[in-house]
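Anyone? Bumping this.
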Amino acid sequence: MRVLLIVIALTALAGCASEPVQPWERGTLAKSEMQWAPDPLEAVLRDHIYFSKEASTGGGGAAGGGCGCN
Amino acid sequence: MAGRDTHPSLLALTSSALLLPAYQQANADAPPDYTTLGMSYSRYQEDDTQAGRTVGGESIERYEIDVAQFYLLAPVGDDWSVALDVQWEDMSGASPWFVGLDDGDAKVFMSGASIEDTRTTVSVNTRYYYDRGNAGFTYTRSDEDDYESDAIALDGAINSADGLTTWSAAVSASFDDIEPTQGVTPTNTLEDSKDIYGAFLGVSRIISKRAILRFGLSYTYRDGFLTDPYKLQDRRPDSRKEWAASAGLRHFFTGPNAALHVDYRYFDDDWGIASHTVDLAWWQNIGRNTQLVPFLRYYTQDEADFFSNTPDFNDRYIADDYRLSAFGGITTGLRVRHTMGNWTLNATGERYTTSEDYGLFGGDEAPALVKYWRYSVGFDYSFR
């Protein structure tokens, strides 16, 4: 059931209504501050620190390697 | 067929899992135009334990950690890129050993001697770009004094024909070995191993000229020795199943010339732990070359089924590790970026605080909850 709900949500998002945005209208979306992780080293470090202090991880991509910190 | 020029920076979704390398935010359908490299140095210092929550009544210094990071991302030919990520970590200080009752209050007993450890992680990636997406392979090696990990990952992304939607998927496997450093008191194992398998599925969607939305789901299965060998009262199940669902929004506001970042994650596992994480950031442009980025993160988790400040050794599983307790955490920080030609300099300061009172879930408050300050400085250079 949990997986089914997620698949439904993903499908809904993929097909969700949005205004047509032509390729030449995507300049703002290409700005560095509009990226998912504009500072990659910062993102990697933060995820690693939180993994060592908390019990949760994942959600944003494939799992990485393990660590003796947790 | 959509040409590469028509998809500005539709990003793959695989950007924020543990130790994922920097290159993972490459464009979905085109290799980088030029080589970039970056370096960063960070130091974070955990607060001393609270005297009133420490056995013996004296506060004790905890970890101080230095981290140096390096990445290099380079295009190869018309359709490929290669990337290298390296991270060095050096830590020293005392760590919680066990929790006991002192005058009826739960107090932490810290490891006596200062612990020293170093960690080196090297990650290599190669990525192929095709007309509507990309596919990558990553190998990661992590070495510590007492821990080794070899991990591989495969990921891919594909854009819809109109370029408004990007689907992403990834699978990974990690094979880890632990050989705890022996002190005066023996650890609860001499040598052991665990495997970690993960899968991810995500989708992002351009919803306007100034906004993009994403959603992701990950599943992680851990199998093997999951107990903390350095804790006196720790005996955990030998498997763990984890689910995480995430959502993110990037919205640009033309008036203030700034971008809003909103990210949310829900986590659940079969140890009884659930958590909510909300990340907010405001990317404020100042002129053409400077950005100020205040950020705020809220985290709350439930405790593991077998967590207790006063574990019963007759139970099959026990743990008094504060990381398995119910608590909430708040991070506040500020990041500054300044670009000069091909150079971008950055600096970050942040404060992380935790308390059982901050959490949405009830449970015993662990006496060893951690707080820290972090400072980072770094730069990126583009070979344009």
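Late reply, but here is one note on the structure posted above: The radius of gyration of chain B is 22 Å.
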